[in-house]
Amino acid sequence: MNRKFQLTVYGTILGLVILLAGCSNRTSEPTPAIAGNTVAAFLTDSPADGVVSFRIDMTGASLVSSNGSEFSFSSGLQQIEIRHLELAPTLALQTKTAPNGNYTGLRLTFANPQITRCDAQGNVTVLGPNTVPSVRLASISINLPINVILQGNGAAGLMIDFDLQQSIQTDSRGNYVITPVLTVSDVANSPNNVAVQNAEATVLSISSPGIANLQLLDTGQKISAMTNASTTFAAFTGQADSLQAGETVELDAQFQSDGTLYTDRMDVLSMSSEVTFRGVVIGVSQDTSGHSSLEIVAQE
Question: If you count Cβ atoms within 10 Å of the first and of the last residue's Cβ in the chain, which end, N or C, has fewer?
Answer without folding.
Answer: N
